[in-house]
Design a protein that fits this description.
This protein is of the alpha+beta class and 226 residues long. Strands 1, 2, 3, 4, 5, 6, 7, 8, 9, 10 and 11 form an eleven-stranded mixed beta sheet that branches.
């Protein structure tokens, strides 16, 4: 992992944004009490800290934490009102016949024995705008703008649409395509990256836009898309 200071994308007296590495938990949990997590690391440096949202362990990219309860409530309210804009980048299996579409489907969180978010007729509606950045023979490159915020939303939506994310072993089987995948990279890597976020600073009321550059391993994997 980089020096911690290199992971800080933005900081003021109310909040901090971190470029979370893949393989690091956002908060405590995951069944292993000895495993490191970002919130604990931040608390050791700043004292009280509140997670505004989460990224999956093997998803990298920008994540926000609040330094006080008021900022936490304000940012949570922005999320609930869908006022915070997020942009994800992903490398996935498959060759879509379209270049841009909106994926809408009902999802149920923790819907099976593997605790996955699954398609369910009686689930709650999810929505993401998807743009194909580049197509290859086996792998392609997506940019995703989620409009709702379900746990594992992007991973589930892409998998059920037939385009599972490279390295995502949990959601691979939901893609309903033959499993010919062989690990090409470190087993902890999932090629989903939280690239950018836009939100309103609760105090200054100015819009802040932050970008977490694509990791080196992600850029290396883009060579597969040809």
């Amino acid at each position: 992992m980089k020096d911690f200071n290199e992971l800080i994308l933005f900081e003021n007296d109310r909040l901090i944004a971190i470029d979370k590495p893949a393989g690091l938990l956002s908060i405590e949990g995951g069944g292993n009490k000895e495993e490191s997590d970002l919130r604990t690391i931040l608390r050791e440096r700043f004292g009280n800290i509140w997670a505004v949202h989460r990224l999956d362990k093997n998803t990298s990219g920008v994540i926000l934490f609040a330094k006080d309860r008021t900022t936490h409530r304000n940012l949570n309210d922005q999320f609930q009102r869908h006022q915070i804009q997020k942009e994800y980048h992903a490398i996935f299996h498959g060759f879509p016949c379209w270049n841009q579409k909106t994926i809408q489907m009902p999802l149920q969180i923790n819907g099976d024995r593997s605790h996955r978010t699954i398609y369910a007729i009686d689930g709650k509606n999810s929505e993401s705008d998807v743009i194909v950045r580049k197509k290859g023979n086996r792998y392609s490159y997506f940019i995703i703008f989620p409009k709702t915020g379900f746990t594992h939303q992007i991973r589930s939506q892409l998998s059920f649409s037939g385009f599972p994310i490279l390295g995502d072993r949990l959601y691979w089987q939901l893609g309903n395509i033959p499993c010919t995948y062989k690990p090409l990279f470190d087993k902890t890597l999932t090629f989903l990256h939280a690239y950018a976020i836009h939100f309103v600073d609760p105090k200054s009321l100015k819009t802040i836009g932050l970008v977490a550059p694509l990791p080196k391993y992600f850029l290396e994997a883009l060579k597969l898309v040809d």
